[in-house]
Design a protein that fits this description.
By secondary structure, the chain is α+β, with helices and mostly antiparallel strands. The protein is 27% helix and 42% strand. Strands 2-1-6-5-4-3 form a 6-stranded mixed beta sheet. Helix 1 runs antiparallel to helix 2. The chain is globular, with a radius of gyration of 14 Å. The chain starts with 8 loop residues before the first helix and ends with a strand.
């Protein structure tokens, strides 16, 4: 069974997460479609590439030392993938630690750009 799309959603998800870990905002920006929707109970829902990028910049100003790791990455379809991840960070001003674990489902358009991100926080083990 061959994919009709010219990209691998698992590889695109991993590339997106690597850019986040590197705080490479140019690559992060290039991952998103203009009409992207980022839906997260932990950080809030944001729509539109400019708004999502502004939210990313605000978040990483507050948590510049974030370290995130995928525990698992799954292909869901030709245009979607899911990761189970965990992260640790420290608030730059308050020094408060942030520890989260969650699932993220990412949907891509035919060009491999992210059109929707759904983040669900999970219980910490």
């Amino acid at each position: 069974m061959s994919s009709s799309l010219a990209f691998d959603p698992v590889e695109n998800l991993k590339r997106f997460h690597a850019a986040i870990n590197a705080l490479d905002f140019d690559v992060i920006d290039a991952c998103f479609a203009e009409d992207v929707a980022y839906l997260s109970g932990g950080t809030g829902n944001v729509e539109g590439k400019a708004q999502v990028m502004a939210a990313f910049r605000r978040y990483f100003e507050a948590y510049p030392d974030q370290v995130a790791e995928n525990d698992a990455v799954y292909r869901l379809s030709d245009n979607s993938a899911k990761s189970v991840w965990r992260l640790k960070a420290t608030h730059a001003v308050t020094g408060e630690p942030l520890v989260r674990r969650g699932e993220e489902t990412i949907y891509f358009n035919a060009a491999g750009k992210i059109v929707r991100v759904e983040v669900t926080d999970l219980e910490l083990d």
